Amino acid sequence: MNGVERVGSEFYGNDYLPAKPFTSLETLRFEDLPEWKEWLSFRGEGGEFPRLQEFYIKNCPKLTGDLPIQLPSLIKLEIEGCNQLLVSLPRFPAIRKLKMLKCGKVLCQIQYSGFTSLESLVVSDISQLKELPPGLRWLSINNCESVESPLERMLQSNTHLQYLEIKHCSFSRFLQRGGLPTTLKSLSIYNSKKLEFLLQEFLKCHHPFLERLSIHGTCNSLSSFSFGFFPRLTHLEISDLERLESLSITIPEAGLTSLQWMFIQGCTNLVSIGLPTLDSSCPLLASSQQSVGHALSSLQTLTLHDCPELLFPREGFPSKLRSLEIHNCNKLSPQEDWGLQRFSSLTHFRISGGCEGLETFPKDCLLPSNLTSLQISRLPDLKSLDNNGLKHLALLENLWVDWCPKLQFLAEQGFEHLTSLKELRISDCASLQSLTQVGLQHLNCLRRLCISGCHKLQCLTEERLPASLSFLEIRYCPLLKRRCKFREGQDWHYISHIPCIVIDDQAF
């Protein structure tokens, strides 16, 4: 409402003003009122919103005040993008979640007893916060220069903090007074400067309850770091640290027995990740290779994304992986000596981007026989799928192939051995002309077949597709669309029994 400048008595009913105008209202939101400057609050006994639980004011840049002061039932308050707001925030005895971002000078003295129920706090201006409520569990700090002083001051008053998020902040010195609390279960850092002042000490300390650690983006001061002493760590995420060259994980006496998920993305200069092996307490690091041992017996998911310099030596992966994804890591080309065929737990494998010169995939004995999901994407030189590498994948249920511009054959000897295949997706393979050699009619477990963006594909099958197929989708395949035209195409009788057929935007 671009014209609203003032909210006054008319908001509560003009001439008719009940004692409590909004007796049932539980949620109130004001958003995107660019000219709103003034709010004249209702001053009746008991307040205007006795049951209000959630209150939002967002993107009202000219609003200066006031705000309702009697909100006895308020649980959640968010004020964001109100740069001119100048009010004193009253105490709300029931409030649990408070968010204040880019909201001018909202004077909030949350250290007092009126905020004893507060559990989550998201703030950008923390200069006025002298301490934290004793029950606070979740704290997010945004856009703060020299964040260490107010952070130290606040943490001194809170010994129960479990979730800490730091966004777009900068550090100018090391933390004093013991650093971050050992009660943390999750630490997330986004696009903050001079992180070495925080991380160097933090990564050396023992954090017995830490479960999640995420470090994201634009920190140009870190070229390497190592960490350990996180016995309960289950999730580790590192992304867009462009200067990071090496990462080392040391194993304390108890081991990283809880680590299940590791995601590394956009570390364009990363050449070394060191994880210890079973028979050595020292990380195996090399200047241009990555040694990943088997001590991380609990690690189930490993994702490597946009790390073009990363290399793996022989037997480089933790042996209990269930999911392995490699995206745009130009020097990581799947090899037999990776030992994946021995990984009895690996059920999902995805390779996407890079692998220049790789014309056939997968090679014999590359993938484990227990694989249930295989995704092959953006391999620029791939010309065919290798039958020798697929023939033992009897448990494979999902096969996706996309953005392989030179792919001409899926498998010259067919897919008959993929007896468990339930879903087959093929998209954006510009050179693919025929699927007749695949033998789709023999895939008696196939339920979904999706084909899109294969402009040269002319023929799907020479026999009736299996009765198990319940869904067929064909999009942006003009030649195939002509052959599968409803009741008229020469291949229509091969597919007419399928319950659901979608060709471009038409369903049959």
List its traits.
mainly beta, four-stranded parallel sheet, 21-stranded mixed sheet, single chain, 508 residues, 31 strands, 5 helices
Write structural notes for this entry.
The chain is mainly beta. The protein has helices spanning 148-155, 196-202, 387-390, 478-483, 492-495, and strands spanning 6-7, 27-31, 38-39, 54-58, 76-80, 86-88, 97-101, 105-107, 120-123, 138-142, 163-167, 186-190, 212-216, 224-227, 235-239, 246-249, 261-265, 272-275, 291-292, 301-305, 323-327, 348-352, 360-361, 373-377, 384-385, 398-402, 423-427, 448-452, 471-475, 500-503, 506-507. The strands form five sheets. It has a 21-stranded mixed beta sheet. A four-stranded parallel beta sheet has the order 14-16-18-19, with no helix packed on it. A two-stranded parallel ribbon has the order 1-3. Helix 1 links the parallel strand 10 (138-142) and strand 11. The protein is globular and about 80 Å long.
**β content, as a range?**
25-35%
* Number of DSSP E strands: 31
Helix content bin = under 10%
| Class by alpha and beta content | mainly beta
Sum up the overall morphology in one term: globular
Please describe the biggest sheet, giving its number of strands, its sense, and whether it closes into a barrel: 21 strands, mixed
* End-to-end separation: 45 Å
Mean pLDDT: 83
Summed up, the helix count is 5
What is Rg?
A: 30 Å
